[in-house]
Design goal:
181 residues; 6-stranded antiparallel beta sheet; 3-stranded antiparallel beta sheet
Length: 181
């Protein structure tokens, strides 16, 4: 599988979901939309089982974000404008596990020139007619996602959708082909 054709992959990461449940007692999910940058050292303390897996796989997280989307929210189709091209998303609340992340390809190598800085992190926005839906996944387990591909989260549940996501010093492309444990 080459990088250009990669969209997402579910990962079998052994982690303690109760650590995330404890994290959201400090940072509760809001019935709105949020994209908050988290302190990476605080995350190391809060979710040590995730960091144990990162360490065992020589993956160095440098950014973490807590994301939530209100019920019925359809996120703008966008590409993350960052050096990092891969992220790992962990579902926060399993009652919103049927929410969908849709992955797209731009039509005819069209690139967007609309930069959105509203959440303090640059995104390129796409209109629906500028992209072709290629695949989608649900928030049922950790997912490795190619954040340089146009994507959009759709919370089609009656619960707030929460995701804890990480970005890395070096993209862990080896996970695309590797069986994870």
């Amino acid at each position: 599988m080459i990088k250009e054709n990669f969209y997402f992959k579910y990962l079998d990461i052994p982690y303690d979901h109760s650590e995330i449940v404890n994290l959201i007692t400090k940072y509760p999910l809001l019935n709105t939309n949020r994209f908050d940058k988290m302190d990476i050292e605080e995350m190391r303390q809060a979710v040590p089982s995730i960091f144990k897996w990162f360490d065992a796989n020589n993956i160095e997280p440098v950014f973490s974000f807590l994301i939530n989307h209100r019920p019925g929210f359809r996120q703008t189709i966008h590409v993350d404008q960052s050096v990092e091209g891969l992220g790992i998303n962990f579902p926060v609340n399993l009652d919103a596990s049927n929410s969908i992340t849709r992955m797209y390809e731009p039509r005819e190598k069209l690139t967007s020139d609309i930069v959105d800085l509203s959440v303090g992190y640059p995104f390129l926005k796409y209109e629906p007619e500028q992209v072709i839906l290629k695949t989608m996944y649900t928030s049922t387990k950790p997912a490795l996602i190619h954040i340089h591909k146009p994507h959009s989260a759709w919370n089609n549940t009656t619960h707030t959708r929460g995701v804890l996501t990480f970005r890395f010093k070096e993209d862990p492309w080896f996970l695309v082909e590797k069986e994870t444990t």
